[in-house]
Design goal:
Blueprint lengths: L4 E4 L3 H13 L3 E6 L7 H5 L2 E4 L7 H10 L4 E3 L9 H9 L3 E2 L4 H8 L1 H10 L7 E2 L5 H4 L3 E5 L9 E3 L5 H16 L4 E5 L4 E10 L5 E13 L2 E7 L6 H18 L3 E10 L5 E7 L6 H8 L3 H9 L16 E8 L1 E2 L5 E2 L2 E2 L2 E3 L7 E4 L6 E2 L6 E9 L2 H14 L1 E3 L5 H9 L1 H4 L7 H4 L10 H21 L19 E7 L2 E9 L5 E3 L4 E8 L2 E6 L2 E10 L2 E6 L2 E7 L14 E3 L4 E6 L6 E2 L4 E7 L2 E6 L4 E6 L6 E2 L4 E5 L1
Parallel strand pairs: 1-2, 1-4, 2-3, 4-5
Antiparallel strand pairs: 6-9, 7-8, 7-9, 10-11, 10-13, 11-12, 12-15, 13-14, 15-22, 16-17, 18-21, 19-23, 20-22, 24-25, 24-31, 25-26, 26-27, 27-28, 28-29, 29-30, 30-31, 32-39, 33-35, 33-38, 34-37, 35-36, 37-39
Helix pairs in contact: 4-5, 12-13
Length: 639
Amino acid sequence: MTIKKLLIANRGEIASRIISSAHDMGISCVAIYTEADKDTPYVREADQAFKLSDSYLNSKEILDIALKSNSDAIHPGYGFLSENAAFANQVKKLNIKWVGPSSNAIKKMGDKLTAKEIAIKVNVPTLPMTSDPKKANSIGYPILVKAAAGGGGKGMRIVEKAKDLKESIKAAEREAEGGFGDKRVFLERYIKRSRHIEIQILGDAFGNIVHLGERECSIQRRHQKIVEESPSPMVDEEMREKMGEAAIKLASKLKYESAGTVEFLVDEKTKEFWFLEVNTRLQVEHPITEEVTGIDLVKEQLRIASGEELGYEQEDIDFYGSSIEVRLYAEDPGNDFLPVTGKMIAFEPSDDPLVRWDVGIESGSNITANFDPLLAKVISFGETRLEAANKLALALENSHFGGMKTNRDYLVSILRSKEYLDGDTTTDFVERINLNSEVDLTEEEIFNFAKVGAMWMQGKNRSEAMVLQNIQSGWNNARLPYQEVKLSLDDQEYRMKYKSLKDGNFVSAESEIIRMFDWHEDFIDVEISNVRYRSKITMDDDLLLIQTHKGNLLFKILPKFNVTQEEAIKGGLTAPMPGKVVEIKIKKGSNIKKGDTLLILEAMKMEHKVLAPDNGKIKEVLIKENDQVENGQTLVVLD
């Protein structure tokens, strides 16, 4: 039966991605959204959209919408209900097609312990593990605590010493309960110098199963991937064949249908690999497989769900070129990658060089703490790995977006680094390689772009002048002071002083000649001391976002006269991010040592410890458990 109408039980960039392929197949799409997502792009892209009363986890309401909209099928995307076997069963009972594997496969692979048992039965190698903390020593430290019912880095902790195991298990259980509704965790040997290699599989209802090569996803922070590529710089043809055979063996045992991913951990030295898990859904990084094989995985999922046969065998699949994906997150790499909220005042992806942008936001989008901080996936393709890396870095640099912290500049640093280009991409990459987390510009270059901003502001003021518009800005027939603009960037102040000249140009207080070639409300073309600057510029209240040749700078426009600010609370320890207080470990009067965990915040489904900066005593606790706090809010006062 052909699918004519598809409900997408997800949000953001993955909903937009599915809509794109479905529309290309002539399939009508139904979106669901919450109040927080009412203005997001995917809601407008869908042919119909229904508002949810509470969350994307309300399976009953989603099924009611599917019936009300006469949808033939449901695609769950990734996250939320995508690996919920009970939901898949409910969909099928209503005679609605489920775009994914059978509920039996989801159930078996959703439980990491059961998945490992099946892998052992079909002779696929696995790492030593136990679900009994008392047997931890038999595995040996370091140990990885993992959620039994989920992935994506949630419910996962590295434990170096036995004394830290109890607290790590407790935190992992709490995170797993919040993320998957299942608090079970298990312990597994942790391999420090390793690579994360996964094999994409496709299976149909006729027993046909193929693999589409590997993806390397080793570069991670907090056990969540940020850079992925296909093919892996480590994997040769022989290794690819062995891993592909292991993945197909496991998938055959499950009678797997639809798209899925078999994940392996590979020892950097020996190239020995071990089975980790099967993700019974589309992966965030699926586009890189599409780029090197030419196979649209969403279309294949929809074909298989419609009852079609794959129509090709393993030897029919060709691999060509290299593809790299980076995940653009709302987070601050300079502050331990903590999530960030705020307004994206501009979002204009580069169209040169041409790369693929899978996005879920637009200019003006408000980024909240309600969901995962993923803003977009950016994917490049090149005939070689070097070409793909250079194209992707340049596309990120040439794009005009900002208004809040993102990891964009850090991603560029990775792609430009010698270690990455040499293929030295083990799972400890982020901790091992110290890279820039800000735009890679000199202080002089930053000051010059502050001058570019000042000249754009004078053009804006002139365009808004109500009188004497034919008189150049700043012109006078008397000896008056220079015009002045003050901007700040990361607490560094930049003062730009300039005067208008009779020929229409300007001169700075440093005697630099400034020539204005073009000005628009979102662009400037100006020459400062014989250097030409062509920059996109966006202004929002007191923020000025300026495009440079290496990314964007977000300046704050300072008032001409100093404004007295409230004095910070002496000894106050502030929230490093917005979030929810899930546990407070101290009380008024508690004695603390440097490094002690004072409280735990949860933001975007991940937990973060707030540590004592020094020895001392708790003078005051200003929050309580379950409070929602803002970035910079004072939490406790230390004596």
